[in-house]
Structure formats: structure tokens, C-alpha cells
What we know:
globular, eight-stranded mixed beta sheet, aspartic-type endopeptidase activity, transmembrane, mainly beta, 2 domains, Cathepsin D, subunit A, domain 1, binds 2-acetamido-2-deoxy-beta-D-glucopyranose, transmembrane helix, 8 helices, 28 strands, disordered C terminus, PEPTIDASE_A1
Amino acid sequence: MKASPLATAGIALASAAQAQVVQFDIEKRDGPLLRDLSRRATTVNGVLSNQQVQGGYFLNVEVGTPPQNITLQLDTGSSDVWVPASSAAICTEVSQRNPGCTFGSFNSDKSSTFVDVGQGDFDITYVDNTFSKGDYFQDDFHIGGVTVSNLTMGLGLDSSIANGLIGVGYVNDEASLGTTRSTYPNLPVVLQKEKLINTVAYSLWLNDLDASTGSILFGGIDTEKYEGDLTKINILRADNSNVFTEFAVELYEVQATSPSGTDTLSTNAGTLVAVLDSGTTLTYLPQDMAEEAWKEVGASYNEEFGLAVVPCSIRNINGHFSFTFAGPQGPKINVSMAELALDLFSGGPAPKFSSGPNQGQSVCEFGIQNTTGAPYLLGDTFLRSAFVVYDLVNNEIAIAPTSFNSTKTNVVAFASSGAPIPSATSAPNQSKSGPSSSTGSGLSAASGFQSNDNAAPLTSAFSGPGAIVVGLTLGYTLLGSAIFGIGWL
Ligand SMILES: *[C@@H]1O[C@H](CO)[C@@H](O)[C@H](O)[C@H]1NC(C)=O
Ligand SMILES: *[C@@H]1O[C@H](CO)[C@@H](O)[C@H](O)[C@H]1NC(C)=O
Ligand SMILES: *[C@@H]1O[C@H](CO)[C@@H](O)[C@H](O)[C@H]1NC(C)=O
Ligand SMILES: *[C@@H]1O[C@H](CO)[C@@H](O)[C@H](O)[C@H]1NC(C)=O
Ligand SMILES: *[C@@H]1O[C@H](CO)[C@@H](O)[C@H](O)[C@H]1NC(C)=O
Ligand SMILES: *[C@@H]1O[C@H](CO)[C@@H](O)[C@H](O)[C@H]1NC(C)=O
């Protein structure tokens, strides 16, 4: 997510917009069927690959003439497409700490259709303080089997991030507003202008933590990728603003459910506005709410990592967190424990708790973390459990529980520009006045989360010393610095 003056500066968001791993599966669906679909001016489909440890979702695109392959991270929390310049230090100064631009970079000298349209005008900083700066340029852009001619993009000449991003948010969140005070038609808008899709909207299906691919579908929905019904809720504007800048929605309530009970998490943070942000790996809730979630599952905050951690075995527990949006009758998404324990490193053995109640067990990062203030972020640990439609014309989100690993497809395009989201009904009684503070309902679910018939019972986290994690050197040099936001340069 892009930092804005409204965003709390400097909160340490683990792994937002970072991707420094060597191993990744990329898939590009590029067959005749897809081309047919897009020529009928209805939908454009991109296949996302799931980089589990870094948590990013990546798309293969091609830029320029002749086309240069680049892999970009999809980000609903920002609005610019940008590519690292081949000449940028982060790409050229390869060392043990910096693997270089392994996801590809762009050499503008080698593109005959490259036009520089804004020297020095591209300057973006994300909420984790990573940045990229350079020029705006226009060139051909190929995605999901279609070509967009003349897309405006950023060229990262000076960047702390080695991979580019594909920001698909509102034009009113473009980085150009900070430099030239103007906006330009970004990718979703241009796809519609060039009649490749009917309206400025897309659906995102990230799929399971263990699955390697999901998909973004511009201009339509896929009725086979969710369970039950799609429910529409309003996107909220920032107070005192008359434009939409981000996918902010009212998070009405979060509940924890295990075999021993269901609890509503309490908070004094007032009405919660949360941003749906695919560029953020984890989910960030207010301090009090996050701490209650940690108590439920027996998570402990680890100072060294700056993260709440859990024994990895928690993924086998039968329980979930439910997120309810836009009022008591709004849509509810359940996120199972299997989606909420993430490996700390790829490759090499996981670190283990060296003492405390979970001594000897493998350490995972917990999918729900704390942050000091708004924006609260619903990142990939939440988004994987939902099928989400983003309608940037009617300023609505439609959401439904995901259909994990669905292999069927039934694409329905938006009928026209401004048409409503197909097959979706509005949540009743939406308001922006949820409980100003919810008192919560105790910890009746905790014992169910923390006992496992198939494994040694996990002792309650309320007693005993905080976890101490060993094994920091394992695979830490490269990955660790990206995961925990320590800079590369
Ligand atoms: C670009 O991607 C295509 C298809 O994925 C592949 O055939 C081609 O070899 C790639 N080119 C480069 C320079 O990596
Ligand atoms: C691309 O944009 C530039 C600058 O806006 C314009 O001069 C040029 O005609 C455009 N080219 C095409 C093919 O649309
Ligand atoms: C989805 O597929 C992955 C990979 O095959 C598998 O590990 C996972 O358990 C599946 N998820 C569900 C919910 O069936
Ligand atoms: C989500 O969990 C609640 C209990 O917390 C349950 O009543 C509801 O049926 C679940 N929804 C789905 C779609 O599984
Ligand atoms: C998260 O909570 C821990 C433990 O209470 C605290 O030390 C840390 O500063 C908090 N992080 C943020 C970003 O508020
Ligand atoms: C909620 O919405 C339903 C259906 O739109 C309506 O019948 C009901 O009166 C509403 N309830 C409240 C408390 O507003």
C-alpha cells in the first residue's frame, strides 16, 4: 500500500512490496481461448503466482517493443505500474545481500516505442518505507494475452525494491499527485478506454496458501470461484474527502470460533475502517484486538522478529476467525487456522521455540498482527479466503467466501460501463457507524484453539516466559532481511 499523509508514517509492515527470493513459480495463460475472450471486449484474465513466504502475488507481463519479460507484484493498495530500470543500482550492484532484479527489469534503450513523459516525476513510497523514484514513461504493455498501447508507467531509476509493481487502485492514489499534482489513466482505466473490458472493475481470487496460482480477472467475475452469494458493500471515502483513494471498507466485527466457543474480539479503536490490500502479506488490526486474537490462539509477540508468532502446528486446529463487514447483516468471511500460520523462511528448517510453553515446536508467523493506528490492513492472509470484486465506477466491493482450488470457470462480464457487479446483492442496513467500541465476549474459544487431540496440547500462552526463538541464522541472511523490512542498501 502506498504511503499517504493520512497513513501512519513508518509502521513496520513485514514484507509489503518486497520480493527477494529466487524460487518462484510463474504461470502465464496465453492460449487462444483467452485471446478470444478478450477480443470480445469483455474480460482480461491474468494468472497470478503465489510466492508464499514473501506473500506476494506476481504477474508476468511484457513491456516495450520488442517485448521485455518482467514479473510484477499485484497491489490493490497502490495505483501505479512501475518497472525497475535495468540501469538502477539495485539491479546492477549484485552482491551476496542483493540478488539483483531477478524478476526482470526494463531497458528503455532497447524499446523502440519508449517515450519518456515525465522526468523525475515518478516518486512512490510504500507504507513500509520502501520506495522507487524516476521518470514516467509510456510504452506498450502486454498482459494476459492483450496489448495496451501507450500505458503510462513509472521507471524506477533509484529504487529500494528489486521488483516492480502493478498497482490497480484508484487514479486518485497515483504517485503523480505528489509531484505533478495530476492523475493519468492507469491500467484498469486504460483497459476500459481501449475497450478490452466494459467497465473499470476486476475480481481477485488468490486461492489457498498452498496453491501456487490464483487469478485477477479484469472486467468480470467468475461464479465458480466463490461459495454462496456475492454481497456488495460500499467503499468508504476518507473523512473530508470527496474522492475515493483506496479500498477502504467498514470492518464491523471480528470473531474467533473454535470447538470450545465463539468470541467477539474487543477494541476501543472505534468504528474500524480497513483497507483490502493485496500488496500486504499479513493482516493488521488495532493493538487491543490483535492482542486478543493472540490470546485466543496462544500466539506470542517476538521482539526479535517484531512479529506475533505461533507454533506452526496451529494450522491443524479446527477453528477460524470470522470477519464481518458493513453492519451486522453484512457479508462474513471465515479464515481458517490453516491460512493463518505462515512459514518464516523458505528452504531450510524452520526455527524452533527454544524455551517457553511451545519449546521444541516449529515457529510460524501468525496471520494477524498489530499496528499502532489506521490504516488497518486486510492483506493476503485475509484475502485468500475471499473472492473479491472491485468496482471502481460504482465504488463498491462485492465479497464472498472463496472456493478453494476450484478448477471450474464461469466468467460473467460486466454488461457495460457503470453496470452493477453481476450476481451480487447489496448488504442491508449498511452504515458507517458500527459499534464505537465493542467490549468483546471473553475467551471461550481459547481452549479449543490451544488443544489438539492429535498432538501434545499446547499450553496456554498466558503463563510462562515469552517465546525465545533460535535458529536465526538459518536462511536468514537473504530472506530475513526482506521479511522483516531491513533495507537492502
Ligand atoms: C519471455 O517469456 C516467454 C513466455 O513466457 C518465453 O518464451 C521467453 O523465452 C521469455 N523471454 C525472456 C527473455 O526471458
Ligand atoms: C502515446 O501518447 C503520446 C503522449 O501522450 C502521444 O503523443 C502518442 O500519440 C500516443 N501514441 C499512441 C499510439 O496512442
Ligand atoms: C488446495 O490445493 C493445495 C495444493 O494441491 C493443497 O495443498 C490444499 O490442501 C488444497 N486446499 C484445499 C482447501 O483443499
Ligand atoms: C463461518 O463461521 C460461522 C461461525 O463462526 C458459521 O456460522 C458460518 O456458517 C461460517 N460460514 C461459512 C461460509 O462457512
Ligand atoms: C505490537 O505489539 C507489540 C507487543 O505489545 C509491541 O511491542 C509493538 O510495538 C507493537 N507494534 C506496533 C507496530 O504497534
Ligand atoms: C434492515 O434491512 C431490512 C431489509 O432491507 C429491513 O427490513 C429492516 O427493517 C432493516 N433493519 C434495520 C434495523 O434497519
